[in-house]
Every structure is written in structure tokens, then in C-alpha cells.
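pls design
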């Protein structure tokens, strides 16, 4: 089907190009000294080279063409960066030039590209929203004040696993972690669970999955702008519907909260929604309800799947490396006490658990190519010119597995981070799962708290084994590409009382 769509699109394009040649096309100025890369085919350029797992295909190509290479993806000139030194040039040295992004067509649904933080160019609105994230929503003080909300959700996950441990049922750990991520986030934002049917949560969970699926699919309209109007794969139309349904859910919750706030003597919830409504009410930041809804959309789409798939990978790696699992359990038993409840404040006292999380991000960054950046001017990087308007991708997956940086790069060795000062904040360019510079992920403090707490709680409370018939040797460790990279095959595990 996709192949037929591709052929139809190419046919349309060919017609258009011929028509343009009558009218006279604009000749584009091409700077000299472009990065090297494989010669593109007519029209489709290097699109077919991306394959099903673009981060891996691009890593392979970089072995031939080097850490900076150029590809022509349909009409989009793309430069791929695959070394820490060059990632630093993009994310720090030339931060001002590479600060904006290329916009996927699906993201223009409901004008999200003009109201959602990840896609805005640097502007007063961008600064306002970043400030909102950093100071009102995800600052350490704010997160400290609502950590109990997340702690309760993790305790519920532990209770669920305990029930499965008693019945001997195998657990789909990614699914369970996704539910906990969604509920941790919905409690941080709305002080309620969103995966219980009475709260339309079933809908929200399915909507988040569907948005990830639609936005993650390769979209011909992104590579051939002439197709944007027709949306031949229907991806934008379906994203439009999902965004609309999500906004309807938010509308109901916001309306209820306004009513509650208006009742005299009502106590505020100290959650993200209250913080946002305070800002709307103060009118100091020019924040309106439409902006609040777009911000909430980003919160749920960016914050759920990323953390749950990382937890699933961490568990998969630990189950393949039982001595690392034992070492982590020993640390937890010594610091927290066997089976005792872990809290976010315990994280700094658990260096091995932190090393496991870093090692998981090194091998399995949820956004292996980060989010795309765009060049605002012809710029010299690594001795080549990145032309103005080019899309720039940083292959964090390739950097994480580069043998010139890491010893035994494909092995899961958390010990490499013990005593090392490499952190996840984007200042060490060999490990950049959250990006870097002005556009780095503002969700990092929340994501890392959720991840350490969930993983630590699960491995402190239980012993684990793979489901019957699966061994570390036969386990499928392949991934599949979407908005974020997930395991190709869900991890099924059996918990045993510790
Ligand atoms: C494991 C979890 C997560 C990972 C690995 C991750 C990764 C990323 C990456 C790579 C970027 C692009 C950075 C760049 O261009 O330099 C990003 C941006 C962003 N992330 Fe996250 N993220 C995670 C969780 C979250 C959470 C929990 C939230 C919010 C609740 C969030 C909200 C955002 C937003 C709003 C942006 C856009 C920032 C901007 O463009 O200025 N993320 N994230």
C-alpha cells in the first residue's frame, strides 16, 4: 500500500516538476564544500537508504562517509552528525544557528506548530513557555512539592506486580510501566488517574498511543512539500482528530477545576494545572487556555512513552545480565532496606542505580536522532558547510555505540559510569539522550525522577526472571522506530517475591 502511495506521489511530483519547467524554476544557490554523502537518486534522493531503522542505517553510512554527512531526503537536504565533537558544535557552539526545528506536517494539526513549545522558533512565546516549564512546572522545588503524587502511583505498580508474583502470571512490563507513567504524569498535572475508565483515561492512553503512531510514521508530505495539501497517507487528518479528542478531555478537566477554584474556601491541589491556571488568572504572562491545552498535549505525548520504554529496556538489559541485577539489588537492600519503599529523595544515595539508568540511555536513547534541528544560515561545521535551511539530525544512538568513545560499546556495563562525571544534562556530548543547549528537554528532571523511582522500586521489591521458554541468549533485543524507539517485542517477565 505504502509502495503504491509512493509511486502515485512520485508521479504527481514528476508532473509538477515538468509543469514548473515551463514556467521557469528558481535556481537554488548551493554552497560549495557540502558534507560528503552517497549520491542521491533523482527525486527521491537517499530516502530508500533510511530503511526501517533509520538510526542504524545512518550509523552504518557514517562509517563510510564520516561523522558529518549529507543526505537528500526527497526535497529536504539533511545533515547527519555522529560524533560528540560535532554534536557540541551544533548544540553549543552554534546554538543560535541550529536552535529552530524542521516541522513534521502532522504537527501542524490544530496549529500545534505555532503553539506547542517543541516546534516554536525562538520568540517571546517560546521564552514564555520555556520559563513556564522551568520555573512553574518542572523546577526541582515544584517537583519536590508533588513527589508524593508520583510515589503513590509507583506503590500501586508494586502492588500490581505483587499480585502477579503470587499468581505466577507473566507481566508485560512496558505496558505496566506506561500505565504508571501516564498516571504519575496525570497525578502531577491533574491530581487524578487517567487510566481508569471513569476518568476517560482509557481514551487518553489510547490517544497518546495513536498520536505517537501517526506522528512517528514516515510521511511523504515531509519530504515532498507539494503533497502537504493532499496528505496522501491521511496522517495529518488522523492526528487532527486525535489532538481534537485530547483537547476535549482537557476542556472538561479545566472546566471542573475552574469551578472548584471558584468555590469559596476550596484548597488548591498544588499540581501543574493549578500552577497553569494561576498564571492564566494573574494575566502577567499573557497565558490563555488554548496555550494551556497545547502545553498539556506536549506533556502527555513527550512524557509517557519515553520513560516507560526506557524502563522496559533497563529491565530487559538487567534480565540479560543477572550479575548487574544482583549488584543493583544489593545496593538497594543496603541503602533502603530489602522490600522497603523507595522515595525520590533516595536517588542520590544510589550510584549504581543511576549508572544503570545512564547505561540504558547510552544504548537505547528513546529519540535516537533527537528532535530535528534546522540551520538558519550557511555554517561551517567540521570543515564542511551546512547550508541554510538544512535539517540537522544528531545520531545519539550512533554516538552511544561508537567504539572510539566506549570500551565494548554494545555491552551493558553500568560500571563505566561509576566515578565518572558524565551526566545526562547535555554538557557531555558523548551522552545526549535529552539533547542539549537552549532546546534541551525541559522534562529531564521529571523523567529521571520517575525512571529511577520505578526501576529502583521494582528491583528492590522483587526477584525477576524471564518468562518460560525465553533465555538471555534467545531474547529478542531488536527495536522498532517510531516517534520514539521501542522494543520490537514487548518484554514479558515473571516477578518472584524478594
Ligand atoms: C526519557 C524521557 C525523555 C527523553 C529521553 C526526552 C528527550 C527529549 C529530546 C531529545 C528532546 C529534544 C532536545 C533537543 O533538541 O536538543 C526533547 C524535547 C522536549 N521534551 Fe523531552 N524527553 C523525555 C521526557 C520528557 C518529559 C517527561 C517531558 C515533559 C513532561 C518532556 C518535554 C519535552 C519538551 C516540551 C521538549 C521540547 C523543548 C524545546 O523544543 O525547547 N520530555 N526531549
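designed seq:
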Amino acid at each position: 500500500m505504502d509502495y503504491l502511495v509512493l509511486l502515485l506521489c512520485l508521479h504527481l511530483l514528476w508532473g509538477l516538476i515538468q509543469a514548473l519547467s515551463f514556467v521557469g524554476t528558481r535556481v537554488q544557490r548551493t554552497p560549495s564544500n557540502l558534507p560528503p554523502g552517497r549520491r542521491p537518486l533523482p527525486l527521491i534522493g537517499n530516502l530508500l537508504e533510511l530503511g526501517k531503522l533509520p538510526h542504524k542505517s545512518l550509523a552504518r553510512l557514517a562509517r563510510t562517509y564520516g561523522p558529518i554527512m549529507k543526505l537528500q531526503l526527497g526535497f529536504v537536504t539533511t545533515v547527519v552528525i555522529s560524533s560528540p565533537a560535532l554534536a557540541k558544535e551544533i548544540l553549543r557552539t552554534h546554538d543560535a544557528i541550529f536552535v529552530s526545528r524542521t516541522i513534521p506536517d502532522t504537527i501542524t494539526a490544530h496549529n500545534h506548530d505555532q503553539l506547542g513549545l517543541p516546534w516554536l522558533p525562538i520568540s517571546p512565546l517560546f521564552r514564555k513557555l520555556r520559563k513556564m516549564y522551568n520555573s512553574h512546572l518542572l523546577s526541582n522545588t515544584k517537583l519536590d512539592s508533588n513527589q508524593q503524587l508520583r510515589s503513590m502511583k509507583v506503590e500501586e505498580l508494586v502492588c500490581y506486580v505483587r499480585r502477579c508474583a503470587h499468581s505466577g502470571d507473566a507481566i508485560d512490563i512496558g505496558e505496566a510501566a506506561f500505565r504508571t507513567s501516564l498516571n504519575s504524569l496525570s497525578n502531577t498535572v491533574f491530581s487524578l488517574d487517567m487510566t481508569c475508565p471513569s476518568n476517560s483515561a482509557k481514551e487518553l492512553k489510547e490517544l497518546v498511543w495513536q498520536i505517537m503512531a501517526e506522528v512517528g510514521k514516515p510521511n511523504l508530505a515531509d519530504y515532498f512539500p507539494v503533497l502537504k495539501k493532499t496528505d496522501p497517507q491521511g496522517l495529518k487528518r488522523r492526528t487532527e482528530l486525535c489532538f481534537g479528542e485530547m483537547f476535549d478531555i482537557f476542556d472538561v478537566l479545566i472546566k471542573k477545576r475552574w469551578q472548584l477554584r471558584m468555590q469559596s474556601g476550596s484548597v488548591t491541589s498544588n499540581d501543574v494545572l493549578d500552577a497553569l491556571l494561576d498564571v492564566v488568572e494573574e494575566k502577567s504572562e499573557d497565558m490563555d487556555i488554548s496555550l494551556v491545552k497545547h502545553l498539556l498535549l506536549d506533556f502527555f505525548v513527550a512524557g509517557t512513552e519515553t520513560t516507560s520504554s526506557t524502563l522496559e529496556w533497563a529491565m530487559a538489559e538487567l534480565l540479560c545480565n543477572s550479575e548487574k541485577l544482583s549488584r543493583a539489588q544489593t545496593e538497594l537492600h543496603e541503602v533502603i532496606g530489602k522490600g522497603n519503599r523507595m522515595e525520590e529523595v533516595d536517588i542520590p544515595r544510589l550510584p549504581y542505580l543511576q549508572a544503570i539508568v545512564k547505561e540504558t540511555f547510552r544504548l537505547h536513547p528513546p529519540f535516537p536522532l533527537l528532535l530535528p534541528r534546522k540551520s538558519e544560515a550557511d555554517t561551517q561545521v567540521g570543515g564542511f558547510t551546512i547550508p541554510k535551511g538544512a535539517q540537522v539530525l544528531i545520531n545519539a544512538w550512533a554516538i552511544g555505540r561508537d567504539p572510539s568513545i566506549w570500551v565494548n560499546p554494545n555491552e551493558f556495563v553500568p560500571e563505566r559510569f561509576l566515578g565518572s562525571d558524565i551526566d545526562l544534562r547535555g554538557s557531555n556530548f558523548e551522552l545526549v539522550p535529552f539533547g542539549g543547549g537552549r532546546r534541551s528537554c525541559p522534562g529531564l528532571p521529571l523523567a529521571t525522577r520517575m525512571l529511577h523511582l520505578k526501576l529502583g522500586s521494582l528491583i528492590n521489591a522483587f526477584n525477576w526472571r524471564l518468562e518460560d521458554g525465553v533465555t538471555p541468549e534467545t531474547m529478542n533485543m531488536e527495536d522498532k522506530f517510531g516517534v520514539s524507539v521501542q522494543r520490537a517485542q514487548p518484554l514479558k517477565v515473571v516477578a518472584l517475591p524478594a
